[in-house]
């Protein structure tokens, strides 16, 4: 091709759209081989992007102190595509995997397996922690409370602990690498929810029940420690590279 | 370049350069027509498969006015053919629309 | 957007000067004919203009403001989980209202098998046009909403979005996730099949084991210590009357707070 065209490739075929960076292969260079509607669409977006970029560079419109991202229009417009896809997925799921209905309720025949919906498994699992119910020797080896009460109390404790999180974890750290401890707690919590769910369906699990019970408590701790170690290791280089400029503006407390 | 011998004057087929406004007309209306034709084609296919659809009953009563009563299998076959034809027409309209391009859009390569 | 007629391009004159095959000529002629009668393109051009106008005053995003290296926050898809759960809630509400036209919360014995409630569900699934799909949509949107709410909570936790000005919304979120599970539970009981009945039994036992107020709670929520017609009636009212009002209000407040405070950014 001629020199003229070589020059044009960078300036987007004479439409006046200049790629943001000379070094990297830009979207325009990738797209310039195409024709028809994709090409036009590309030009629309590129033009919008360029106008937008220029305006932003000139603008003093928002210099925010609060670290937040505008819900409207940024977040909602970006969500639009994802959510419409999501509704499609929902309908597809409904069409391909319709629910069944079991036998009618019969109080006189207890089924061998009683289960709530999956999202209540963790809570159901908390009802099966009878072995942890403290037995006090003072009252003659009797348990302090009924096993059922203990299970309900465990639920209250878990939900309460989650509710306390924002009051315990303060400071400006946001990413998991910035706060390995809390990320580890979180990973441990997620694992605990999973293992509890497995515990709640223990009669369906092809596994020794006692082993399952022990794993329910060991696995979260192991995962938590692993997370902590990994994040601690990642932390220094990651934060230096990625957030150099950011922390110059807003040094971590 | 593979696309260097692309013709812009029309006769040979692939690309016809048209004014921008006409390009928009072509794109919008060919897409609309194609969508309607394809959807309608699927409706006809549905009518061919489902014995009790609205379209099928309408057509049957229409034929009844002309004192015709085709057999179920014949009606199904006709619906199926009409449906496939409609889908093909939609595709054809769309494909034909893609050869019209506005200025500076057709040049491939760098 | 003026009412003044725009300069019309002389399409037909242009076509004369161009070498076109008969098919192309006919094609263009038809489309131009349509275009002159249905001014769709004009409206789309209005939209195009609007598109550029709304683009003018977008505030700087986080990465632009701090000129960060990564222009795309790769956890971003997880930020849509809140929208997902809201949307699934809306879908569930619409399909649920339609299901409500046909469902009867009656534990009386039905003519054929089971209770009236159960036979209504089988009617919806077997005889009602689109009823099978309707129940499927309702169930799946409920499942997906619960899943999305759980994942939403994890996202908020791991990006530290519950921090300083947003503690209240975190607490509100915990209330909402509990109510969502309540929604799921009450809905799970409504078909009144074996699963529902025995899940209800667990619920009664759980509420009975609450210290001090257990019996009172069981009476209030389940209408007694064993399951029966009152239980089904109460679950129905909770599911279609009480919870929708409460949850819709709380979701509105939850989103309003997010709107006012902005999306917490992950740095």
UniProtKB/TrEMBL annotation, chain A:
<keyword id="KW-0813">Transport</keyword>
<keyword id="KW-0249">Electron transport</keyword>
<protein>
    <submittedName>
        <fullName>Quinol-cytochrome oxidoreductase complex cytochrome b subunit</fullName>
    </submittedName>
</protein>
<keyword id="KW-1133">Transmembrane helix</keyword>
<dbReference type="InterPro" id="IPR005798">
    <property type="entry name" value="Cyt_b/b6_C"/>
</dbReference>
<dbReference type="InterPro" id="IPR036150">
    <property type="entry name" value="Cyt_b/b6_C_sf"/>
</dbReference>
<dbReference type="GO" id="GO:0016020">
    <property type="term" value="C:membrane"/>
</dbReference>
<feature type="transmembrane region" description="Helical">
    <location>
        <begin position="150"/>
        <end position="168"/>
    </location>
</feature>
<dbReference type="GO" id="GO:0009055">
    <property type="term" value="F:electron transfer activity"/>
</dbReference>
<feature type="transmembrane region" description="Helical">
    <location>
        <begin position="80"/>
        <end position="98"/>
    </location>
</feature>
<dbReference type="GO" id="GO:0046872">
    <property type="term" value="F:metal ion binding"/>
</dbReference>
<feature type="transmembrane region" description="Helical">
    <location>
        <begin position="211"/>
        <end position="231"/>
    </location>
</feature>
<feature type="domain" description="Cytochrome b/b6 C-terminal region profile">
    <location>
        <begin position="61"/>
        <end position="180"/>
    </location>
</feature>
<dbReference type="Pfam" id="PF00032">
    <property type="entry name" value="Cytochrom_B_C"/>
</dbReference>
<feature type="compositionally biased region" description="Basic and acidic residues">
    <location>
        <begin position="1"/>
        <end position="11"/>
    </location>
</feature>
TrEMBL record, chain B:
<protein>
    <submittedName>
        <fullName>Putative membrane protein</fullName>
    </submittedName>
</protein>
<keyword id="KW-0812">Transmembrane</keyword>
<keyword id="KW-0472">Membrane</keyword>
<feature type="transmembrane region" description="Helical">
    <location>
        <begin position="21"/>
        <end position="45"/>
    </location>
</feature>
<dbReference type="InterPro" id="IPR055739">
    <property type="entry name" value="DUF7315"/>
</dbReference>
<dbReference type="Pfam" id="PF23997">
    <property type="entry name" value="DUF7315"/>
</dbReference>
<feature type="domain" description="DUF7315">
    <location>
        <begin position="14"/>
        <end position="107"/>
    </location>
</feature>
<keyword id="KW-1133">Transmembrane helix</keyword>
<feature type="transmembrane region" description="Helical">
    <location>
        <begin position="74"/>
        <end position="96"/>
    </location>
</feature>
TrEMBL record, chain C:
<feature type="domain" description="Cytochrome b/b6 N-terminal region profile">
    <location>
        <begin position="30"/>
        <end position="267"/>
    </location>
</feature>
<dbReference type="InterPro" id="IPR027387">
    <property type="entry name" value="Cytb/b6-like_sf"/>
</dbReference>
<feature type="transmembrane region" description="Helical">
    <location>
        <begin position="140"/>
        <end position="158"/>
    </location>
</feature>
<feature type="transmembrane region" description="Helical">
    <location>
        <begin position="170"/>
        <end position="190"/>
    </location>
</feature>
<dbReference type="InterPro" id="IPR016174">
    <property type="entry name" value="Di-haem_cyt_TM"/>
</dbReference>
<dbReference type="GO" id="GO:0022904">
    <property type="term" value="P:respiratory electron transport chain"/>
</dbReference>
<protein>
    <submittedName>
        <fullName>Quinol-cytochrome oxidoreductase complex cytochrome b subunit</fullName>
    </submittedName>
</protein>
<feature type="transmembrane region" description="Helical">
    <location>
        <begin position="78"/>
        <end position="103"/>
    </location>
</feature>
<feature type="transmembrane region" description="Helical">
    <location>
        <begin position="210"/>
        <end position="229"/>
    </location>
</feature>
<dbReference type="Pfam" id="PF00033">
    <property type="entry name" value="Cytochrome_B"/>
</dbReference>
<keyword id="KW-1133">Transmembrane helix</keyword>
<dbReference type="GO" id="GO:0016020">
    <property type="term" value="C:membrane"/>
</dbReference>
<dbReference type="GO" id="GO:0016491">
    <property type="term" value="F:oxidoreductase activity"/>
</dbReference>
<dbReference type="InterPro" id="IPR005797">
    <property type="entry name" value="Cyt_b/b6_N"/>
</dbReference>
<dbReference type="GO" id="GO:0009055">
    <property type="term" value="F:electron transfer activity"/>
</dbReference>
